[in-house]
């Protein structure tokens, strides 16, 4: 009988302790939509120091990846400049070709082959990969799967992946 009394006392103590904490049963609670953001919005890439940094451009409607180059040709916003972001891309004339997981930027006379071109090339590659993914999001094209080539009119460089410029 003492074992039963001891067990009942422990159970009563446990019930009293949990009842006093103020937590009430709620049933099933909906957690909402899955996390999103980075893969939904369009991103362009600027330079911060010696590395690339993506900047989201929400609510942009883009029909073709080439359109993102117009966004990239604009300078960073005032707030982005204050955070140290700069644009090193300078293109005269350009067009893009490609589909699905491949895209080529054609810019006759552009420089893509010197060591100082690494960061601007990275801006182009990452921005175009993101745009290609954005335009083809219904087909499940991910930015990491996109291969970007850069053609200066004499030679084609790449194909590159954005991840090659993010390290």
TrEMBL record:
Extent of the signal sequence: 1-19
Keywords: Signal
Keyword Signal belongs to the record: yes
Superkingdom, natural source: Bacteria
PROSITE patterns with a match to the protein in the record: PROKAR_LIPOPROTEIN
UniProt name for this protein: Lipoprotein
């Amino acid at each position: 009988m003492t074992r039963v009394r001891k067990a009942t006392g422990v159970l009563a103590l446990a019930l009293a302790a949990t009842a006093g904490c103020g937590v009430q049963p709620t049933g099933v609670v909906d957690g909402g939509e899955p996390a999103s953001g980075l893969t939904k919005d369009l991103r362009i890439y600027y330079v911060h120091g010696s590395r690339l940094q993506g900047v989201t451009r929400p609510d942009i409607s883009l029909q073709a990846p080439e359109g993102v180059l117009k966004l990239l040709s604009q300078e960073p916003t005032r707030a982005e400049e204050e955070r140290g972001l700069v644009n090193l891309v300078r293109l005269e004339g350009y067009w893009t070709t490609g589909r699905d997981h491949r895209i080529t930027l054609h810019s006759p006379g552009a420089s893509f082959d010197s060591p100082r071109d690494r960061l601007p090339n990275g801006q182009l590659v990452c921005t175009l990969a993101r745009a290609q993914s954005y335009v083809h999001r219904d087909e499940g094209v991910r930015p990491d799967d996109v291969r970007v080539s850069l053609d200066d009119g004499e030679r084609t460089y790449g194909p590159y992946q954005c991840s090659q410029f993010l390290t």
